[in-house]
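JOB MANIFEST
job_type = single_chain_structure
chain_count = 1
residues = 156
[input]
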Amino acid sequence: MGFYQYRREQLIKQPMETVWDFISSPKNLKEITPDYMGFDITSIGLPEKMYAGMIISYQVTPISGYKTTWVTEITHVEEGKYFVDEQRVGPYKMWHHEHILQPRDNDTLMIDIISYQPPLGILGDIANKFVIRSKIAEIFDYREQVLDRLFNSNEK
């Protein structure tokens, strides 16, 4: 019944407003998620920007052959600075994800802090050690590559 945290930082060579415009738009979630995750937003009529209280539903395949529904609520938003999403329905016993932006001269430091608890007690702890933590890192590696391509390179 472990409780875990995963933290990731990425410097994006764009002003905070530009980065915020991208990460606060639900339509961009699919673009920064690896294709093998089978990530599809199932909510209908989502607005352009996230807001506190917003519910977003997805279909996702976290492990090959296991497609599941994931529902998150955007619980906190400070415009241009951060938002928090929390799982309401999904594969984890608990999931809390902070998306934080901080200025660095003319650039933006993006910080993600994920606090989570796998399901299934001790089996979830074993799965975290051998699969879950590395899958989270793999997803964020992919996201970092996409954001580098979109914002940090001359090839867009």
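[summary]
Helices lie at 16-23, 121-152.
The mean pLDDT is 93.
exit_status = 0
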